[in-house]
Amino acid sequence: MPQAINRRFATAPMMDWSDRHCRYFWRQFSQHTLLYTEMVTTGALIHGTDIERFLAYDEAEHPIALQLGGHAADDLAHCARLAEQWGYDEVNLNVGCPSDRVQNGLIGAVLMGHANLVRDGVKAMRDAVSLPVTVKHRIGIDDLDSYEFLCDFIGTVADGGCDTFIVHARKALLQGLSPKQNREIPPLDYARVYQLKRDFPHLTFVLNGGIATLEDSKRHLDHVDGVMMGRAAWHNPMLLAQVDQALMGSTQPSPSAHTVAERMLPYLEQQLASGVRLNHLLKPLFNLFHDRPGARQYRRYLSEHAHQKDATLDVFLSALAKVPETFSEPLEPCPAN
Fold first, then answer.
1. 166, 84, 168: which is closest to 126 by C-alpha?
2. What is its EC number (predicted)?
3. Buried residues in 256-268 as b, exposed as e (16+ CB within 10 A)
4. 22 has catalytic annotation
């Protein structure tokens, strides 16, 4: 059964990164972080022939949210029902992706200019399922970037039944910038998101964008209800090891990188046996030993050997041997999922 959602800390939905193997890996660090899937378009779920490819996950990943990309109310309702059937804990609508590949399909940030469509999609999903329905968006797009515009958007979407907004504190420029540039060039405006919480105290606001440390998270949590961390968790996954203790009040010991490596072994072995390639499984583990002695040798060994077609778990074990005292620490018990 789905577990209760804690929105105080979440990982971001990231295309080509936050797949099921990455989420399983991240879960080994924190039991309370809400994990988001990559964006899945409604078309892929409705017209695709392999729904399992997009929706399957390990039960250990809970709590987990499915992010959808789309705009048609009926399609969103259908896919929200699928999310509920598959046991997800939340369904989230992407209104933040600036990629020109999705704009023509009225997916992502372009929808900020169509608040009524977002409202109707949210209402259709709320009517279709008992899951929480949330929206992830920017603070504006192009010239539609005034605070008044943002408040109108929030108010309109809230009328559809959305009470939780994940706000990337940058506007999106839909022409002329790549998605990567849209994560870096438009300036962050945290104060604007803080003001939303003051002006809409009955709504839940989760802040996203540029959050690189738990110290950043704590500072933002003085002003908003939750924070979402993206690429910082990918580049240094050990940041997640302190989340439960620093933000959730857990008294459980934080896992070491070495402990997480041991915890991953049965999962890796199982996935390899089912036909998943080793390099795909190890992609999120590449930065496990970020800035630690032996990390460069560990990464180099994986880069040279994990991509080989016949690569086995021995490749990972050999890479771990490059990191001093990999298994010298006592294995901490994994909290119940």
1. 84
2. 1.3.1.91
3. bbbbbbbbbeebb
4. no
Give the DSSP H or E segment for 280.
Answer: helix 278-282
Residue stretches of the annotated binding site for FMN: 13-15, 67, 136, 168, 208-210, 230-231
- The catalytic residue among 97, 151, 162, 334 is 97
Residues 6+ apart with CB under 8 A from 331: 259, 262
Residue 327, pLDDT > 50, answer no
- Residue set of the binding site: 13-15, 67, 136, 168, 208-210, 230-231
Q: For domain 257-320, give its CATH number from 1.10.287.1080, 1.10.10.10, 1.20.120.1460, 3.40.50.300.
A: 1.20.120.1460
CA-based torsion, 221, 114, 160, 14: positive or negative:
negative
Indicate the DSSP class of residue 223: T
* Nearest residue to 167 (alpha-carbon basis) of 7, 15, 20: 7
Instruction: For residue 72, give the amino acid letter.
Output: A
Q: Is the pTM of this model over 0.85?
A: yes
The better pLDDT of the pair 38, 99 is held by 38
